[in-house]
Specification:
With 604 residues, this protein is of the alpha/beta class. It has 22 helices and 16 strands. Bound molecules: phosphoenolpyruvate (PEP) and magnesium ion.
């Protein structure tokens, strides 16, 4: 299975346009690299007779999962051109049949018992045998035989991927300049992508403000998520054009599409040069109101980008990267080294380190030990963020210790994710102070005043009780990504409900306003660090609500600064009042768009 290229199925080779969610701007022109076609290089595994039943059950589960995935793909075919639907529907039907009570699955189940093979090894052997039998059939339609054998192997690969939960580590082998396509890319996979190598990314699944999208934006990789039908229609090596600004992928582009894409690429380069000129200019409104612009950091590879963007520190360091793609938890020293290099690189600008926000969609291998992989049927409402840390205080203690030690090397702030009640901040502070006392006893030189301990306001509960939480926390950072998700009951990473995910929904804006006003009344620092903060069109609204500190993906800073420099703060306040009177999200969007057209003048 590993050596033979996947035979091309009967896929259309005419220009075809696919639309998805535009999550990371930029244009890519290049060959497709479909990760699902990666050779499944799994080690052969043998099992004992006692393991046979469990192994068969694993196989059943994998088949059920794969069947669900393919069925979901099929339900989405209707958005493709009719011709493509006619080509692909029978192929997907064949896949669904093969994932039922097929010869492939029966044979694999038998091999598990008879030959004592691990499920993935049994699938590999059975798929190979069936493919070989098909190819040996006497038939003049050689292309047809090749295609059928390819389909069996494809299903084998799909099952093996599910069985071994293969992360996309083979992303290292992606050819230079390729457009990576996959059904789904997890945040942990995205952390492994090399932006110097990968021209663009398109996936079938994903939402605009999920962590995968955030990671792709942070890496500056043009990306389109939720692009239905693409993986089935494309084959490795096919030419494509991807526009991460409009959410369009053109497969087999014709001359006109290629010319437009090249022009778009040149336009982006010109804009980057222009925006670069803003680096040293202050983020100040025309009437002299200064706004603090900080960067969010997902992985240390972003540090040079942050420096280039002229960020005034890091407003959100998502520490999850330290826990991803590794079999064991990072200890205090490993965390200290990682934070130290970031704090030192920021050379005196503050770094706000958010303690581990595990849970929900951010599944991490290292935490698998001792922490359930998925906390119950509804992980986003489960043991996520501070809840997990208070339940496993040793995790929090280690992280606090590493951060406190680093605070002797430069200005640091500490932030708690997923707060819903003041008591969580109080409990975390108790641990924080206990850890500081222990470190001092150990002879560590900590600053006399401990770094501020702040709370993320990212649940409706926290926003509506922000005044009470403000009594316990030293600062607030409003996480509009989760705030929108929890307020609207819309999973931020789920394609099917992406149209309902709307940070401009008045319910979300009212919560942002409530939390901001609570902080301002108490003269407490408050920032927005969700994806909203990086959208230049939303700057007038956020400033009008009273916010003066925004933290965002580094590449957004120049555009946001450009927007700020043409604004008048009284205009913003009037505009925000007008927006807050509205109850219809569509009307709010109209107002925002209209204000943006007036004010966002190009830089000279
Ligand atoms: C948020 O929820 O808005 C936020 C900034 O946190 P994250 O995106 O890491 O969940
Ligand atoms: Mg969040």
């Amino acid at each position: 299975m590993k050596t033979e290229p996947k035979p091309r199925s009967k896929k259309p080779t005419k220009e075809a346009v696919f639309r998805g969610i535009a999550v990371s701007p930029g244009i890519a022109i290049g060959p497709i690299h479909d990760t699902s076609e990666v050779a499944t290089d799994v080690p052969r595994r043998v099992i004992t007779p006692a393991e046979v039943e469990a192994e068969r059950e694993k196989l059943n589960q994998a088949a059920a999962t794969a069947r669900k995935q393919v069925t979901k793909l099929k339900t989405r075919l209707n958005i493709l051109p009719e011709e493509a639907q006619e080509e692909l529907a029978p192929l997907l039907d064949a896949y669904i049949l093969m994932l039922g009570n097929s010869r492939l699955l029966r044979g694999a189940r038998k091999r598990i018992g008879d030959a004592g093979l691990g499920a993935e090894t049994a699938v590999l052997d059975e798929a190979e045998e069936i493919a070989a039998l098909i190819l040996a059939t006497k038939d003049d339609d050689k292309a047809g035989l090749l295609r059928r054998a390819g389909e069996v192997r494809e299903i084998g690969r799909r099952l093996i991927r599910t069985l071994t939960a293969t992360p996309f580590r083979s992303l290292k082998d992606v050819p230079q300049g390729a457009i990576l396509i996959a059904e789904e890319i997890t945040p942990a996979d995205a952390a492994l992508l090399d932006p110097a190598r990968i021209a663009g990314v398109a996936t079938e699944e994903g939402g605009a403000d999920g962590h995968t999208a955030i990671m792709l934006r942070a890496l500056g990789i043009p990306a389109v998520l939720g692009c239905h039908g693409l993986t089935e229609a494309a084959s490795r090596g096919d030419q494509a054009v991807l526009d991460g600004g409009t959410g369009k992928v053109v497969l087999h582009p014709g001359e006109a599409a290629l010319v437009a894409a090249r022009e778009g690429l040149a336009g982006y380069a010109r804009e980057r040069t222009k925006l670069g000129k803003l680096r040293r200019l202050p983020a100040e409104t025309t009437d002299g109101e200064v706004v603090e612009l900080q960067a969010n950091l997902e992985i240390p590879a972003e540090l040079p980008l942050i420096a280039q963007a002229g960020a005034q520190g890091i407003g959100l360091l998502r520490s999850e990267f330290l826990f991803m793609n590794r079999p064991e938890l990072p200890d205090e020293d490993a965390q200290f080294d990682a934070y130290r290099s970031i704090v030192e690189a920021m050379a005196g600008d503050a770094v706000t380190i958010r303690v581990l926000d595990w849970g929900g969609e951010k599944d991490m291998e290292a935490l698998g030990q001792g922490v359930p992989a998925h906390t119950g049927p509804n992980p986003a409402l489960g043991l996520r963020g501070i809840r997990l840390l208070l339940k496993r205080p040793e995790l929090l203690e280690e992280q606090f210790a590493a951060i406190l030690r680093v605070s002797a090397r430069g200005p640091v702030r500490v932030m708690l994710p997923m707060i819903t009640i003041p008591e969580e901040v109080a409990q975390a502070r108790e641990i924080y102070e206990r850890v500081a006392r222990r470190l001092r006893r150990r002879g560590e030189a900590l600053p006399e005043k401990l770094p501020p301990l702040g709370a993320m306001i990212e649940t409706p509960g926290a926003a509506l009780t922000a005044d009470a939480i403000a009594l316990e926390a030293d600062f607030f950072a409003i996480g509009t990504n989760d705030l929108a998700m929890y307020t609207l009951a819309v999973d931020r990473a789920e394609t099917d409900v992406a149209h309902l995910y709307d940070p401009l929904h008045p319910a979300v804006l009212r919560l942002v306003q409530f939390a901001t006003e609570a902080a301002l009344r108490m003269r407490m620092q408050v920032s927005v660090c969700g994806e909203m903060a990086g959208n230049p069109r939303l700057v007038p609204l956020l400033l009008g609500l009273g916010l003066r500190s925004l933290s965002m993906n580094a590449s957004a800073i120049p555009r946001v600064k450009q927007a700020i420099r043409v604004l008048d703060i009284d205009d913003c306040a009037r505009f925000a009042r007008r927006v807050m009177e509205q109850s219809d999200p569509a009307r709010i969007r109209e107002l925002v768009a209209a204000f943006g057209n007036d004010k966002a003048k190009p830089i000279s």
